[in-house]
Amino acid sequence: MKIRFSLNGKTVELECADSRRLVDALREDLGLTGTKEGCGIGECGACSVLLDGQLVNSCLVLAAQVEGRSVVTIEGIRGADGGPNDLQEAFIKYGAVQCGFCTPGMVLAGEALLANKTRPSRAEIREAIAGNLCRCTGYQQIVDAISATALSRQEKNNHA
Ligand code: FES
Ligand code: FES
């Protein structure tokens, strides 16, 4: 079957089997390997992407399901200069990246939260990343990075 959807802001067309998972279409057919596959059964969040702005596990979504919709992967998250955006910089600054396997999914979980809540509490941040497992950091630094980004975005908005 042929599907057409928006991927990181650009329309793409893809020929794929009905049973093709979105994670495979992204990584293997479209070459976007920033999306990781960990468990393959919806438990680790490594394969997280945004589908119409909502965080989903791309291992549980069929490519066919994104027909006509909007998908954002970690490759679509950038600063104005094309480099890391403020949240990605905060991950680096706060030591929220160690092996990095969970990081694309964590950043997308953070962006999904911050798109809906400008000033999330630490408990709300923990809840937002509850579906994303990290074996390395102990989560504290990830919560710090998301929290600091929320604050700095709010300050920027206040001065805009
Ligand atoms: S690989 Fe999709 S949730 Fe783990
Ligand atoms: S940094 Fe290694 S799994 Fe999170």
How do the strands and helices of this protein lay out in sequence?
Elements: E1 2-7, E2 10-15, H1 22-29, E3 48-51, E4 54-57, E5 70-72, H2 86-93, H3 103-116, H4 122-128, H5 140-159
Parallel strand pairs: 1-5
Antiparallel strand pairs: 1-2, 3-4, 3-5
Helix pairs in contact: 2-5
Bound molecules: FE2/S2 (inorganic) cluster (2 copies).
Residues 37-40, 42-47, 57, 59 line the site of one FE2/S2 (inorganic) cluster.
Can you walk through the features of this model?
The structure is a single chain. This protein is α+β, with helices and mostly antiparallel strands and 160 residues long. It folds into two domains: 2-76, Beta-grasp domain (Ubiquitin-like (UB roll)), CATH 3.10.20.30; 86-159, [2Fe-2S]-binding domain (DNA polymerase, domain 1), CATH 1.10.150.120. Helices cover 36% and strands 14% of the residues. A five-stranded mixed beta sheet has the order 2-1-5-3-4, sandwiched between helices. α2 (86-93) packs across α5. The longest helix is centred in the last third of the chain and has 20 residues, at 140-159. It is globular. The N and C termini lie far apart (46 Å). It binds FE2/S2 (inorganic) cluster (FES) (2 copies). One FE2/S2 (inorganic) cluster is lined by residues 97-103, 134-137.
**Percentage of residues in helical conformation:** 25-40%
| Distinct ligand kinds | FE2/S2 (inorganic) cluster
Q: Can you identify the CATH superfamily of the largest domain? A: Beta-grasp domain
Distance between the amino and carboxyl termini:
46 Å
SS strand fraction: 5-15%
